Amino acid sequence: MKSLSILLSLISFVVATPLSSSSQEQLFFNADGATYPGFNLDLTALRLVEMEGQAPVWVTELEKIKLKAEGINFFDITEAQDLSSSARVSLKTNYVFHAPNATERVKPILKTLSMEGPKENLKKFSSFRTRYYRSDTGKESQAWLLSKISQITAEHASKSLRRLIALTEFTHPWGQNTIIVRINGSSTDDDGVIIIGAHQDSTNMWPFLPAPGADDDGSGSVSILEAYRGLIAADFHPVRTVEFHWYSAEEGGLLGSQAVAKDYRSRSVNVIAMSQFDMTAWVKRGTREEVGIITDFTDPSLTKFNMDIVDTYLDIPYVLTKCGYACSDHASWRKAGYPSVFTIESTFENSNKHIHSANDRIDISDEFSFPHMLEFSKLAVAFAVELGGWSKTD
Ligand SMILES: *[C@@H]1O[C@H](CO)[C@@H](O)[C@H](O)[C@H]1NC(C)=O
Ligand SMILES: *[C@@H]1O[C@H](CO)[C@@H](O)[C@H](O)[C@H]1NC(C)=O
């Protein structure tokens, strides 16, 4: 194990410094051919990646890891090459997002949201050595999340609501599955689906190193889980189907969300709106607490709707910001032709700089804020009720 630890220290040196010089390149290539217990990752495997404005290129897993370490975002389209090619799904309606009007339903739920569950859940979720999508601990963290969702459902959903809820694993070939929770809508003539998403996997810049992923995206994962808890505890029976997704392999080039979006499109599922929550905890010292609303590569009218929701229901204002091409799972839905949006903890510039390192921890700084996360749970609750509607409970 001595050579391994030397290698790891070399690599941590590499990832802590800019990745340009040829000696550093060499260090990365030293890793080639090594095997890592607990990981199912072949660094020589070929992957097809799509970067902004370029034709897709074949690269090795190792080269893909290096691209990410250099801060370049991409879709890994190896298994989803036709996601955008057959154009838009034929949506039955061109949905117009209304001004928020369900305050009587939403506001009482917001009062019931709590920081206790998110604290406990995130402590546990960030305690796995890594939630890397090709690691054994990434499978374990997924199993834990599924059992937690199942427990919350059993504890908080009424009998009639439980009959409408389905928990499923969307299986992927790499091991860690995407989790989908569906609350069936009551409508018989409106097949619209509302999706609230976050990604469950984490990564270190060098994927074999520890990756607690407290903010990225443990925070979004537990923020939407608390929204789900609050909704079902309030006996939310939607008119339209509302789904919560915890994607696998966002860090591998949006692999999980592309697979799900591809499946939905191939079945012509009528997704009306998808909202991604990726990093919801960090309030940089000396900055105003705000919700970052991403305006690039998102749907403009759904983004406007999100601004209205923040104004109507949150205790903090929004700020418009950008995060670039393929920066989180909303991008997969957009590529599949569905309206999607993305909110983040702050402006992109003020977001947590500890991500993709062993320091993405709850306890790294008092800038990591559970009250801030709670605002995002509110946003998710409002999004679900405003767009999902509320049918009379039976
Ligand atoms: C809100 O407005 C939409 C669009 O006009 C409408 O379909 C919905 O029933 C309204 N909801 C409430 C609670 O008034
Ligand atoms: C939800 O609705 C779908 C489509 O109608 C149906 O196939 C499924 O069985 C329903 N699930 C639950 C849990 O009611």
Automatic annotation (TrEMBL):
<keyword id="KW-0378">Hydrolase</keyword>
<dbReference type="GO" id="GO:0046872">
    <property type="term" value="F:metal ion binding"/>
</dbReference>
<feature type="domain" description="Peptidase M28">
    <location>
        <begin position="179"/>
        <end position="370"/>
    </location>
</feature>
<dbReference type="Pfam" id="PF04389">
    <property type="entry name" value="Peptidase_M28"/>
</dbReference>
<keyword id="KW-0031">Aminopeptidase</keyword>
<comment type="similarity">
    <text>Belongs to the peptidase M28 family. M28E subfamily.</text>
</comment>
<keyword id="KW-0645">Protease</keyword>
<keyword id="KW-0862">Zinc</keyword>
<protein>
    <recommendedName>
        <fullName>Peptide hydrolase</fullName>
        <ecNumber>3.4.-.-</ecNumber>
    </recommendedName>
</protein>
<dbReference type="InterPro" id="IPR045175">
    <property type="entry name" value="M28_fam"/>
</dbReference>
<dbReference type="GO" id="GO:0006508">
    <property type="term" value="P:proteolysis"/>
</dbReference>
<dbReference type="InterPro" id="IPR007484">
    <property type="entry name" value="Peptidase_M28"/>
</dbReference>
<keyword id="KW-0479">Metal-binding</keyword>
<keyword id="KW-0732">Signal</keyword>
<dbReference type="GO" id="GO:0004177">
    <property type="term" value="F:aminopeptidase activity"/>
</dbReference>
<dbReference type="GO" id="GO:0008235">
    <property type="term" value="F:metalloexopeptidase activity"/>
</dbReference>
<feature type="signal peptide">
    <location>
        <begin position="1"/>
        <end position="16"/>
    </location>
</feature>
